[in-house]
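Supplementary Methods, section 5.1.

A reviewer requested that the exact input to the structure prediction be made available. We therefore reproduce it here, unchanged from the version used in the analyses.
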Amino acid sequence: MSKTDNIYANPIGEVESFRFDQQVVEVFPDMIKRSVPGYTTIIDGIGELAQKYVKPETRIYDLGCSLGAATLSIRQAVNDSSCEIIAVDNSEAMIERCQLIQSSYNFEMPVTVQETDINDMVFENASFVVLNFTLQFLPRGQRQELMDKIYQGLIEGGALILSEKLTMGFKEIDENIIDIHHNFKKKNGYSDMEIAQKRAALENVLIPDTRDEHYKRFKSAGFSQYDTWFQHYNFASLIAVK
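The structure derived from this sequence is encoded token-by-token as follows.
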């Protein structure tokens, strides 16, 4: 059972950069629910989109899988034993918990959970790839190369789902939407101090792009179709189809 996220509830002299460590694993479901507007809708939607794009005898990749919520959604929605989900994360703590969660379900679709740097991945015979709030944690210089590799590993008609926190295209709008998001977190029980300390921890760790920057990467990689299928405040999920 998930614990309440109180990681930043007390004053911290020097806030360290955010890490997906054991402390975060213990509170992660609560943290996501209270911090990311529309997260449950995105997870449900990933399963629904998988029903449209996953093909028999192909692979599905969940990159930066954390506790495997997207993987579970896909397994439940598609559950084709001829397919395989490969769920990867570079956090040992996340992977250990994800393996426990996935093994507690009896779906026909097999899943391989592994601790890996997604930049080292080789994508083959993929019909569906998920980057659910993952790309924003990679250095900007690595993002296009990963997008290119994903495109090359997708079968024709395969899809990439990319969920990200966005920077809005105009400064004033961006600042106002950020304020609204902070109010969202306050309504979910976070204090001003928690919000400020979490923001400091994520500075230079979570680096968001604009929607146009994501679209340019899709186009550069070779995707023929791409659009936004969901957005709540400055949190969005995009789809790109080969």
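The chain has one domain: 1-242. These observations are discussed further in the main text.
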